[in-house]
# Entry
Amino acid sequence: MSPGPVAVFAAVLRRDLRVAWRRWADAANPALFFVLVVTLFPLALSPKPEFLRSIAPGVLWVAALLATLLALDRLFRSDLEDGSLEQLVLADCPLALIMLAKVLAHWLVSGIPVLVVAPFLAITYHLPARR
# Structure
């Protein structure tokens, strides 16, 4: 008897989170890249507060998207290396549910740290705390 879809979803999510935390340096790369890119822009362009306020939204969004893309290759790398990708495709569980678990794990590992760091970097761009 095969496990249900919820059990497979939880197992894939747990496995991907464990693999990501075993390679914590790989997991930290997107957040570090985000911090590095965002902090280098004022040094390269201009430190004037009004100028920084005008470019901040674009810089923050583009840096966040690039940081997320930096970690995207890890989404299937470990599964491809150990051969479990073929087993996931052949499983009885819907492939969309398995991919949803993998994307959620990827977002938890690479997206959440970027979201946590973003408000602190927004302060360096003299963005107001409230509108």
